[in-house]
Each structure stands twice: as structure tokens, then as C-alpha cells.
Write a structure and sequence with these properties.
The complex is a heterodimer. In chain A, helix 1 packs across helix 9, helix 1 runs parallel beside helix 10 and helix 4 runs antiparallel to helix 5. Chain A has one domain. Chain A has 11 helices and 1 strand. By secondary structure, chain A is mainly alpha-helical. Chain B is mostly helical. Chain B has a domain of about 240 residues. In chain B, the strands form 2 sheets. In chain B, strands 1-2 form a two-stranded antiparallel sheet. In chain B, strands 4-5 form a two-stranded antiparallel ribbon. In chain B, strand 1 and strand 2 form a beta hairpin. The longest helix of chain B is centred in the middle third of the chain and has 36 residues. Classes of the chains: A mainly alpha, B mainly alpha. At the A-B interface, strand 1, helix 3, helix 4, helix 5 and helix 11 of A face helix 15, helix 16, helix 19, strand 3 and helix 20 of B. Strand 1 of chain A pairs parallel with strand 3 of chain B.
Chain lengths: ~325, ~675
């Protein structure tokens, strides 16, 4: 926290954010590739998301004539929010000067801000799909948000802080101590991650079937550069969530102060994300999409587990 | 700091000025022009002056005065301290915006003539200011009752409509049931001295049992005014009935006087406090917050939706209040100050964003004559000023950073993080569940506000005649802009606000957050290593990245746009009525929280020629509490009615029997 005016710290911050922006589509490509392999398909390759973004950026944007300015600015705001989120998440190092501006509660607020904007934009055109998607997205959102907050509460009890880098640092230096409460929190977090990123038990990113989709229904009216930004934001969101999970539950290998420690940290991050992406693909392959009204049960379980983690911490004092 | 004696006089002059401005309205009662163009703007100027005076002198020492008014031997006492000044600021600043909006809003031919309305309105403002300034129970009750009566007349502005009269009556009834509670509370507080000044009450030594009784009478009395469940039933009836500036004033400002009253009794007048009061208030607040927001999600009338959302916000305020009491009861000074600051912050926030949204619904109502969400839509194209300013209110009330609603929720959650350190092994596990409930209520509020904003302003117009809607006038937009600007400022500069609130902390708790709030741009109420939040940097970060993205995308790629029809899924016969309605948007909430609702549904069969779907949402408290109470009152009235024979001989007999009984007693 003493590095607010330190140029090296800001450089590390810049590297972390740039890495997140650049690598997010790669993570998306890796998850898709793993899923293809698990399903005995050859897959489109790791770089497919980049090709997709390039294609979309060059196209003419087709916008419904009934759209308001809100519809057009939303993709940019969404991208801005996700980049800011990346700036407070310790993906490479724990020296992040920007973190002073937003702790985990503000991070949850930041995700909520993005969600509200995309839901409003979905309602802007006035098609049945858009408002259906908006309604479902907000449904998943209001169920997932308290669970996420409770996960952060549990961890902040151990770290005595709600700033994410401080939490990661405290957890990394706990030595061999084992916290049963963290196990509950980790499972709850995984469930929230799946729900918030429109992954399989809640939503299916690969479908355009109207009865099942949530995220895709909301962005149906977007095209070209707007769609590219939305897809990129979605990839960044997955990247951010994965990095939060890694920072909280596998916080080893994060760089400390200077920028030289970023190189090994980058290696650690790549390895951890590769495993996490493969695990995500595995989960998605083994489970089936739920009916939308099973989603509350799923997320209520996540919420309950997070609260249980909290209570376990209080009961055992660890 | 301004000169103390001078500020007292000036502050007292403003309610008087309001009454005078109101009375001037009676001279030309039918003239919309005089009321709207002269008197209401004058009232707004007075309100702004009050806000400025109170803000400038918030750190000044306590001032008291005795007014040469009231009954013989029972003069009015007034007192200005940090708590009173804070709420005077709230009243002044919020009502300045509302009043300037009202100047453009009220038109002729809507029930009460404008001159009379002007009087009622300004008396209402003056009485709220006097409630906050009162330093004895007598003046407090006089002002409190004036407030209830003037607002009753304002609610029933369109008194020719039977439902509006009924709503007004319900409000008056609950206001008076609450007033009885407050009166009894003051009766206990004087503690046998029979002195009704607040100073005497501070000096009275009550036992914990009597203190608890007084406190819960206050919770009951002020809770009825604030709209705590189960005394909330008047809010969703009175707010849709009242004209929008009046709804804004009642919801944004009047509810806060009830919070003020509870703070005054709980933290100032009562000297003995028990920690378990905090637990009770916390539970009450939590239940209200969840109940309010769940019902808000199911509403189809825009003002009713906002009324339920007010219940939710009052619930959040009570959660903070309960937390502060709890921490103070266990002697934890810093967390108590944090929770109290969050409570006060949320009071101010709610005053601004809720007023803003109520006024926006007023503009929509004037432009479309429609309150039902199912018949609105697409108004952002016809009413851009209202729509964009309402967006600020929507984001603020949904608790999103970097606006003001988020700051108070952030502070409250930070307060909750201390509840694990409570030195009571049962409570320290129960209270974290409260944090979970609060998080759920806040997340649901975002759902409700997306529904509110999306259905009114976005999408396509559900009725063809909405195309004729006009944006609001200049005075109205000025009022909305003022409220929206304060929402943004309260969100961006929380440290400045907290420094002001700390005066109240010092007064009520004897300690504050002072050493922790040194950086004007960084909010770190406990310690920087523990938690910090900087809305300014946050806003600049998002805005900077967004701007950079726009630049990059538009410079490196072309910015060509083609306007087309929306995608119709191969079904070209879509119309605006096929959008999600308010019922549709509320459906997941109705399904998940079904036990909360009293629901009557009529579903069409597949063979219906003209299928109709109907769903009615009722409040279970009507059936559980109010209908049995009404039946009890009626039954009692019937029994008492047996005494009334209507013959003079019987009444003479009663007098005779009473006389005999009294004689027997004295013998």
C-alpha cells in the first residue's frame, strides 16, 4: 500500500492489465479447445477467439433503428468495467496501486454495474428476446452476488482485509495451516463462477436455442465492433473470475514488489490458468444444462455453502 | 464557522418564511401562475438557504433557545446540535429540488386549488423542520401532528376520487396509531419529573426495563411513520395517491424525520441502553428490507414499486441503526461509529435518489397520464432529459459504484465485518447472517431497478399514444438536475460527507472516525490496509478506459453503422405488446418467493376464445394483522353500541349510576 507513487508499481500494474486484456481471449480459446478434445472433436484452435474478434471489428455495425444511445455506449462501458476489474485483481503480482480505489466489495459492485448496463441495453431494442435475457441475467445476478460477497467475507475474516491483494498475500503466507472454511468458500466460488460467466449448468455459451439461453439472448441485437467488445468483455470476465479464484485459493507464485518478479509470476499464472481452463472444460463436459428454475436452487446451494464457510470459520476459529 | 446566535435566528426564520409564503398563496388561491412562478421558487430558495446554513454550522456548538410561543408555563424549546443540523440540511437540500420541480408541476384543475396546495405544502415543510428543531416533547408533538395533517391534505389533493380518500384515511390512521406510541414513549421518558423538555428527559434515570419499554414504544411509533413492516401498509397506498412532488417529499424527506426521532430517543434521550435492542432493530430492518424489495419486484404500478422500494431502504437504515446500537452496547466504539455513519449516509442518499425517481415518475405521469408499467415503454426517445436523469437515480438506488447508494452499502458491509468480533458467542454468529440478507436485498434492488427503468424508458412504446409524450419543462428539469447532481457528488466525495457526519458521531457516540479520514480522495474508514475505496479514481478509471476504447476502436477500424430493423427470428408479425411486461419481469421473483405473497391467479384454458391472464398480488399482513384488528374494533364498537340506546332516560340513569358509584368510592 506504500507504493502509490512508485513508478515501478504502476509499471507492474500496467503489465498486469495488458496481460489480462491480451490473454483473456486465449483462455476462452483454451477452454473451448479442451472441451472439443473431451468431446472427441478436433476444435477450432487456440487462436479462434482472436480471429473472431478481428472479423467482427472489421464489419459494418448493424443497429436496430429503435436503439437509444444507451445501447451504443453499453459495450464500451462493459469493457471499461472489466478492464478496471482486471486492475484490482492480483493476477501476476500483489503490488497493484489501483487496488486502493476498489476493494472486493467494490469489485462485486463493479460486476453488478456491468450486469445492470448489459441488462438495460438488452431491454433497449424492445424485442421479446432481449427482455427475456435481461430478466434471466438479473435473476442469476441477484442470486450469485450475495454468495460471492459471502465468499469474500469468509476470506477477509482470515486476512483481516477486504483488499484483494492483501487477502492473497495473507493467504499465501499462511504456511501449512489448513482452513476448512476455505474449502466451503472455494466450492461456493466455483458455483458462482459457473453461473456468472454463463457456463454450463446455468447457461450454455454455445447455443442459440431461445428457451435455454441467457447471455446470448441479451446480446442478440449486437453486431460487429459492439459484439466484439462484448465478447472480449465476456472473455475478460472469465479471466478475472479465474484470477480471483486463483488469488484466493491457490495464491502461490504471485510476484511481490518489483517488475522482475513478474516473469516467473507469468509462468505460474499460465500454468495455473491452463489447469483451471481444462478443469472448467471437464466440468462443462460432465454436467448438463439445468432448467432456468433449477438455477435458484443451484445458487442457493452456493450461498449456503459460503455462509457455512463463514460459520465454520467462527466455530473453529480458523 | 458562522456566529452561533445569528444562525439560530436565521434557521428559525426559515420555517416562518415558509408559512408566510404558503399563506400568500391563499390571496390568489386559483392562480397557478403566482403559486408556480413566484411562491414555489421562493420556497425553494428558502430551502436552499436552510441547507446552506445547516451545512455551514454543522460543527458549531449546541445552541438552545426558548420561544415565546406555546401554552402559559409551557413554552417551546428549540435546540440546534449536529444531529438536528444534519437533518435540517437533508430537509433543505432535498426539498429545494423537489420544490423547484413542484413549481413547474402543479397545474390547475387537479383537485385542491393551487394557492391552498401551496399553503399545505409549505406548512408541511415548516413542520418537518420544527420536528427536527424541537427540544421538548410538546413542540415535538405539535410539529409532528402538523406534519401528519398537512401531508394528509397533500395526499388527498385529488379528493374527488374515492380510492385516494381511502388511501389518505389509511395514512392518517397509521400516523395516529404511531403518534400514540410516541406520546407514550415521551410519557415514560420524563421519568416521574413531569418535565417534558428533552433536557429533563436526558437527566431522568430510568431502569433498564423502563428504558426498554420507552425504546420499543419509540420503535413502534416512529416505525409506523417510517414504514417498517408490519406498519408499512400505508406507503404503497398513499404514495401512488399523492401528487409526485408530495410522494417525493414524503418518501425522501418525511420518512427521515422518523429515523431522526428514533436516533434522538435511542442515542440521545435514553441514557441506559441494552445491546439486545440492536439485535431487535437489526432483525426488524432486515425483514423490512427483504419484504419491501420482494414486493417491489412484483409491482406493476411505477409509484407503488417505488413505495415498496422505500420500505426496503428504510429497512437498510434500520439495519445500520441496529448494528450501531449493538456495537455500542458492547463498547466497540469504532464499529459503532462506522455503522452510525453508514445509517446517516443512507438517510441522505435515499432522500436524494428516491425523490429524483418519484419526480421522474411525476414527469412521466404528466406526459402520458399512465401509471401502469404495462402501458409505458420507450420514453427515452420522447423524454430524454427525464430518462437520462432517472438513469442516475436508478443506478444510485441499485447500489452501484461510483454513485452514492453504493457508498452507504459499502460502509454498512464494512461495519458488518466487525460483527465477528462481538464478545457474545451467539450473536457473533447470528449477525453475519444479517450481512447475507443485506447483500441479497441490495442485489434484488438492482433487479427491481432494471425492471423499473427498462420497462418505462427503454424498449418500444407499448401504446401508440405514448408517441405524443413531451419532455418535462424547464423548472421540472432544474429540480431533477439538482437532485441528480447531489447524488453524483455524494457518491464521488464520500470522505467530505463522512467528515460532516462525524460531527453527529461525536455527539451521539462520543467518538468518531476522525483520525481515519484524512485523505480527501480515499475512503478508508478503518485502516488503509483493511479496506479502502476511492470513487473518484474508480470513476476516472472506468471513464478513462471507456474513452480509450472508443478512441482505439474508432481510429483503427471504421465507425460505419447501418440502421436496420431488429432481428425478428423469422416471425415478422412482432409488435410492441410482445415485449416483456412488468408482470413478466416479476415472474421469477413471484415464483421463488411465493410464500411471501398472497396471490390470486387466473390462467386461461387452451380453449378460451379471448384468453385473459390475471394475477393479483396481495399483502399477507392485511389478512394476518389488519383484517383481524379491524374486525376486533368493529366487534368492540358493537358491544359499546349496546350502551347507546338513544333515549334520554337511559342516559340519565347512566349519570345517576356513575354518581352513586363515585359516592360509594369516596366513602
Amino acid at each position: 500500500m506504500n507504493h502509490v507513487v512508485n513508478a515501478g508499481a504502476w509499471l507492474a500494474q500496467l503489465v498486469a492489465v495488458t496481460t489480462a486484456i491480451a490473454a483473456a481471449p486465449l483462455l476462452m480459446g483454451w477452454v473451448n479447445q479442451c472441451r472439443a478434445w473431451l468431446q472427441n472433436r478436433s476444435g477450432a484452435g487456440l487462436l479462434q477467439p482472436y480471429r473472431m474478434l478481428r472479423k467482427l471489428l472489421y464489419k459494418d455495425a448493424a443497429i436496430a433503428s429503435a436503439a437509444s444511445p444507451l445501447f451504443r455506449v453499453t459495450p464500451y462501458i462493459l469493457f471499461g468495467a472489466m478492464v478496471c476489474a482486471a486492475a484490482v485483481i492480483p493476477s501476476l503480482g500483489t503490488t497493484l496501486p489501483f487496488t486502493a480505489a476498489a476493494d472486493t466489495i467494490a469489485l462485486v459492485g463493479l460486476f453488478a454495474l456491468a450486469r445492470v448496463f448489459i441488462a438495460l441495453a438488452a431491454m433497449d431494442i424492445g424485442t421479446a428476446f432481449g427482455s427475456l435475457g435481461a430478466r434471466r441475467e438479473m435473476l442469476v445476478g441477484f442470486l450469485a452476488e450475495p454468495a460471492l460477497l459471502m465468499v469474500f467475507f469468509t476470506v477477509s475474516l482470515i486476512a483481516h482485509s477486504t483488499a484483494l491483494p492483501t487477502m492473497a498475500q495473507a493467504l499465501a503466507h499462511r504456511g501449512a495451516a489448513i482452513y476448512p472454511s476455505l474449502a466451503f468458500a472455494a466450492v461456493a466460488f466455483l458455483m458462482v463462477l459457473l453461473a456468472e460467466n454463463a457456463r454450463i449448468p446455468i447457461d450454455n455459451p454455445a447455443t442459440h436455442l431461445e428457451l435455454t439461453m441467457i447471455h446470448e439472448a441479451m446480446v442478440l441485437e449486437y453486431s460487429a465492433r459492439h459484439l466484439a467488445l462484448i465478447e472480449w468483455s465476456a472473455a475478460l470476465k472469465l479471466f478475472n473470475y479465474c484470477c480471483i479464484g486463483l488469488a484466493l485459493f491457490l495464491p502461490w507464485g504471485l510476484g511481490a514488489g518489483d517488475w522482475r518478479s513478474l516473469v516467473p509470476a507469468l509462468g505460474f499464472l499460465t500454468a495455473k490458468l491452463a489447469v483451471a481452463g481444462a478443469a472448467l472444460a471437464l466440468i462443462e463436459t460432465f454436467s448438463a444444462k439445468m432448467r432456468i428454475f433449477r438455477a435458484p436452487e443451484f445458487l442457493a446451494t452456493a450461498f449456503l455453502l459460503a455462509v457455512l464457510g463463514l460459520l465454520v470459520h467462527l466455530l473453529l476459529g480458523s | 464557522m458562522t456566529d452561533p446566535a445569528w444562525t439560530m435566528t436565521a434557521t428559525l426564520a426559515i420555517p416562518l418564511a415558509w408559512v408566510a409564503i404558503g399563506s400568500l398563496g391563499l390571496l390568489r388561491a386559483r392562480s397557478v401562475l403566482i403559486a408556480g412562478r413566484v411562491l414555489f421558487p421562493l420556497g425553494a430558495a428558502a430551502a436552499l438557504l436552510l441547507a446552506f446554513l445547516s451545512l455551514a454550522s454543522i460543527g458549531a456548538p449546541v445552541q438552545t433557545a426558548v420561544l415565546p410561543l406555546g401554552l402559559p408555563d409551557l413554552p417551546f424549546h428549540v435546540r440546534l446540535d449536529a444531529l438536528a443540523r444534519l437533518f435540517l440540511f437533508l430537509i433543505g437540500a432535498a426539498s429545494a429540488g423537489i420544490t423547484i420541480f413542484a413549481a413547474g408541476y402543479f397545474r390547475s384543475g387537479e383537485g385542491t386549488p393551487p394557492g391552498l396546495l401551496c399553503l399545505q405544502y409549505h406548512v408541511f415543510l415548516a413542520s418537518m423542520a420544527m420536528v427536527v428543531m424541537a427540544d421538548d416533547a410538546y413542540l415535538f408533538m405539535v410539529a409532528w401532528e402538523t406534519m401528519a395533517l398537512s401531508s394528509f391534505f397533500l395526499v388527498t389533493t385529488q379528493h374527488r376520487i374515492a380510492e385516494i380518500r381511502a388511501a389518505g384515511f389509511l395514512y392518517l390512521l397509521l400516523a395516529h396509531i404511531g403518534a400514540i406510541g410516541i406520546l407514550l414513549c415521551f410519557g415514560l421518558l420524563q421519568g416521574g419529573s413531569w418535565q417534558f423538555t428533552f433536557d429533563a428527559m436526558r437527566a431522568a434515570r430510568l431502569t433498564p426495563a423502563w428504558s426498554s419499554a420507552a425504546f420499543f414504544l419509540a420503535v413502534f411509533g416512529f416505525g409506523a411513520k417510517a414504514g417498517i413492516v408490519p406498519m408499512h401498509v400505508w406507503l404503497p397506498e398513499a404514495h401512488p395517491a399523492a401528487p409526485s412532488p408530495v410522494s417525493a417529499l414524503m418518501s425522501g424527506v418525511m420518512l427521515k424525520t422518523a429515523v431522526y426521532g428514533l436516533l434522538r430517543v435511542g442515542f440521545d434521550l435514553l441514557q441506559v441502553r441494552c445491546w439486545w435492542w440492536g439485535l431487535a432493530v437489526l432483525g426488524l430492518g432486515l425483514f423490512s428490507a427483504l419484504y419491501g424489495v420482494i414486493f417491489a419486484a412484483a409491482q406493476t404500478d411505477m409509484k407503488r414499486l417505488l413505495a415498496y422500494s422505500s420500505i426496503e431502504n428504510i429497512g437498510i437504515i434500520f439495519i445500520g441503526l441496529g448494528l450501531a446500537l449493538l456495537f455500542q452496547g458492547f463498547g466497540m466504539a469504532l464499529p459503532a461509529a462506522l455503522a452510525l455513519a453508514a445509517t446517516l449516509y443512507h438517510c441522505i442518499n435515499h432522500a436524494f435518489f428516491k425523490s429524483l425517481l418519484f419526480l421522474a415518475t411525476g414527469s412521466v405521469l404528466h406526459a402520458t397520464r399512465q401509471r401502469s408499467l404495462g402501458k409505458l415503454g420507450g420514453l427515452i426517445h420522447r423524454m430524454p432529459t427525464v430518462a437520462w436523469l432517472a438513469l442516475v437515480g436508478t443506478l444510485a438506488i441499485a447500489g452501484l459504484p461510483p454513485l452514492n447508494g453504493f457508498v452507504s452499502e459499502w460502509l454498512l458491509l464494512q461495519g458488518f465485518l466487525f460483527s465477528f468480533d462481538l464478545p457474545h458467542s451467539f450473536v457473533n454468529m447470528l449477525v453475519p447472517i444479517g450481512a447475507a440478507g443485506l447483500a441479497l436485498a441490495v442485489a434484488l434492488a438492482a433487479y427491481v431497478m432494471v425492471k423499473f427503468y427498462g420497462i418505462i424508458f427503454l424498449g418500444r412504446m407499448r401504446e401508440p399514444r405514448l408517441a405524443a409524450a413531451k419532455d418535462c419543462g424547464r423548472l421540472e428539469s432544474l429540480g431533477l438536475m439538482w437532485l441528480a447532481a447531489v447524488c453524483v457528488l455524494l457518491g464521488i466525495f464520500p470522505v467530505t460527507v463522512l467528515a460532516l457526519l462525524d460531527n453527529v458521531n461525536q455527539l451521539l457516540l462520543g467518538s468518531g472516525l476522525a483520525p481515519q479520514i484524512d485523505h480527501w480522495w480515499l475512503l478508508a474508514p478503518v485502516a488503509r490496509a483493511r479496506a479502502s475505496y476511492s470513487p473518484l479514481v474508480f470513476l476516472l478509471g472506468i471513464a478513462g478506459v471507456t474513452w480509450l476504447t472508443v478512441l482505439v476502436v474508432h481510429n483503427f477500424y471504421h465507425g460505419r453503422v447501418r440502421l436496420t430493423d431488429p432481428w425478428d427470428c423469422g416471425f415478422p408479425l412482432q409488435n410492441a405488446r410482445m415485449q416483456d411486461t412488468a408482470e413478466g419481469f416479476g415472474q421469477p421473483i413471484r415464483q421463488i418467493f411465493e410464500p411471501f405473497f398472497q396471490m390470486r391467479r387466473e390462467l386461461p384454458t387452451p380453449f378460451d376464445g379471448a384468453p385473459r391472464y390475471r394475477v393479483e398480488i396481495g399483502d399477507r399482513f392485511w389478512i394476518w394483522l389488519y383484517q383481524p384488528a379491524a374486525r376486533l374494533v368493529q366487534a368492540t364498537a358493537r358491544v359499546v353500541g349496546l350502551l347507546q340506546q338513544g333515549r334520554i332516560a337511559v342516559y340519565l340513569l347512566y349519570s345517576f349510576l356513575t354518581l352513586v358509584a363515585l359516592l360509594l368510592l369516596t366513602l
